[in-house]
Amino acid sequence: MKIGYLGPSGSFTQMATQQLFPDDELLPHSTIPSCLKAVMNGEVDVSVVPIENTIEGTVNPTLDFMYHQFNGHIQGEAIMQISQQLMVHPDNAAGWRQVDRILSHPQALAQCQEFISDTFPDKLTEATFSTAYAAKYVKENRGQAIAAIAPKRAADEYGLTIVKENIQDISQNETRFWVASLAPFNAYTKNLTSQGKKVSIAVEMTRNVPGGLHKILSALSWRGLDLSKIESRPLKTRLGEYFFLIDIVNAQELALVQLAIEEITLLGGKVKLLGEYDVFPVSSV
Ligand SMILES: O=C(O)C(=O)C[C@]1(C(=O)O)C=C[C@@H](O)C=C1
């Protein structure tokens, strides 16, 4: 299969993708929407994109695209430990404290807020498409006084010097990645063991019914369905209109989830089933 991922080479997403699909052809894409569009237009069979992090929460571009535009499903999830490193071009290693800009993906910058405000109180941060993109940019622009926050793998890939290790605000920092495709497949490597089944749905109440969210939650709760996450995102229609992402864990009884979806629909809710999938812990290699 052809597998898209948020690249370039050296990204956290690449590490997760290589463990999920060790024998497939991996193709980097520069943004999360371009990874998911590549699935929709048949350029790749599957794409792997980040969805949530311990410190910074939901990766909104992923959730918004999955809800508003994606016409396939989540087929799996990987959970990986994330350790962020500060790196510079080797020529600037001695004077790294003098950098005037710190580049990374917004999720990674947010994961290292304490370090950045303590070490570089007056310096600018600059958002890049991914952590590895920032590392590559630092490599290609050695004349600029810049640093990247990225994985150790990106430092190796682009020949950068790590000047501060493990700079994320908490050590137990993890990111979830979704595996998305149009058609189901069962080609996961035997090296991975599922830690359980999950179902993700997105729900919007078509009219502003009082107690609408309460009704949605009741349909799930009286069936004993165990929720691990609920989050609202703007519908992008009018101010004050939202959809809700709901993750259901230990969802062995998929029939129960189907019945809950039917009940929510009868109550006036519009439900999009984002996917029913296995969750795989992967290591940060
Ligand atoms: O894969 C990467 O390297 C990314 O830049 C993306 C991303 C994310 O969006 O969460 C992936 C894992 C980390 O949480 C930080 C950044």
Helix and strand topology:
Elements: E1 2-6, H1 12-20, E2 25-29, H2 32-40, E3 46-53, E4 57-58, H3 60-68, E5 73-81, E6 85-88, E7 101-104, H4 106-111, H5 113-119, E8 124-127, H6 131-140, E9 146-150, H7 152-158, E10 161-164, E11 174-181, E12 197-205, H8 212-221, E13 226-234, E14 242-249, H9 254-266, E15 269-282
Parallel strand pairs: 1-2, 1-3, 5-15, 7-8, 7-9
Antiparallel strand pairs: 3-4, 3-11, 5-11, 6-9, 6-10, 12-14, 12-15, 13-14
Bound molecules: prephenic acid.
Report on the structure:
By secondary structure, the protein is an alpha/beta fold. It has 3 domains: 2-81 and 173-181, Periplasmic binding protein-like II (D-Maltodextrin-Binding Protein, domain 2, 3-Layer(aba) Sandwich); 85-164, 3-Layer(aba) Sandwich (D-Maltodextrin-Binding Protein, domain 2); 197-282, ACT domain (Alpha-Beta Plaits, 2-Layer Sandwich), CATH 3.30.70. Helices cover 28% and strands 34% of the residues. It has helices at 12-20, 32-40, 60-68, 106-111, 113-119, 131-140, 152-158, 212-221, 254-266; strands spanning 2-6, 25-29, 46-53, 57-58, 73-81, 85-88, 101-104, 124-127, 146-150, 161-164, 174-181, 197-205, 226-234, 242-249, 269-282. Strands 1, 2, 3, 4, 5, 11, 12, 13, 14 and 15 form a 10-stranded mixed sheet that branches. Helix 8 (212-221) packs antiparallel against helix 9. The longest helix has 13 residues, at 254-266. The chain binds prephenic acid. Residues 6, 11-13, 50, 53, 59, 82, 105, 107-108, 130-132, 175 line the site of prephenic acid (PRE).
